[in-house]
Amino acid sequence: MTGLGTVLDAARVLADPAAPAWAAETAAWIRDEVSAPAPALGRAGALCPYVPAALRRHHIELVECPLPPTDPGALDRWLLAGAAEFRADTVRRPSAEALLRCLVVVHTGLAGQEALLTGVRTRVKPLLLADGLTTGEFFPASPDTSVRNAEVPVARSPWPTLALRHSTPHDELFLAGQPELHRIFRAAGPGIDTRTAS
């Protein structure tokens, strides 16, 4: 993916003392929090079950979106361009590999302005779901908690961040309380069916 600027392999960033701060902090968060066991969820495994393998196999990539908050439309277009490149790359891969691919977009220009990040996600997510993709929103003071345990925060990251990946049947659980997004997801279907991925 070249149109977005420099894209970094999260696993390699962890071993690179010269990595930029935004990348080093985000990669450490992925390793130490998102990949960590979360017994409070009432199940075995990591907070996000796919992330440990994705990180180990070099399928998580980081990219900086440095755009300032002055033009929300530009932020939307930047993310949609990134999503198009991401999808074009992953459709050439076996479905089991594409399932683990994730592009983590770190919005360094939105630090302290998380409402703008929410705006981008709100406007863009319906378009992504219609194309078999989805995005999750993360920021330092995120109030989002697990659908399994409302006491467990699940979306607190060091930087305002949007994570792009293929949608899967499991996303229906997260969208059940959002009727319009749920409708789009049901109409489009998941980007990858984990039951048949190979």
Structure, described:
With 198 residues, this protein is an alpha+beta fold. Helices cover 40% and strands 13% of the residues. It has eight helices and five strands; from the N terminus they run E-H-H-H-E-H-H-E-H-E-E-H-H. Helix 4 (72-90) packs across helix 6 and helix 6 (114-130) runs parallel beside helix 8. It starts with 6 loop residues before the first strand and ends in a 10-residue tail after the last helix.
Q: SSE string, helix = H, strand = E?
A: EHHHEHHEHEEHH
Q: Report the principal-axis shape.
A: globular
Helix share of residues? 25-40%
Structure classification: alpha+beta
Poorly predicted regions are none
Rg over C-alpha atoms, rounded to the nearest angstrom? 16 Å
Distance between the termini: 24 Å
Q: What composes the largest sheet?
A: 5 strands, mixed
- Round the mean pLDDT to the nearest integer and report it: 93
**Neighbour order of strands in the largest sheet:** 1-2-3-5-4
Total DSSP helices: 8
Percentage beta strand: 5-15%
Work out the number of β strands: 5
Q: Summed up, what is this model?
A:
The protein is an alpha+beta fold.
Task: Give the key terms.
40% helix, five-stranded mixed beta sheet, 198 residues, alpha+beta
Write the layout of secondary structure elements.
Elements: E1 7-9, H1 10-13, H2 21-34, H3 51-56, E2 60-64, H4 72-90, H5 95-98, E3 102-106, H6 114-130, E4 133-138, E5 161-166, H7 171-175, H8 179-188
Parallel strand pairs: 2-3
Antiparallel strand pairs: 1-2, 3-5, 4-5
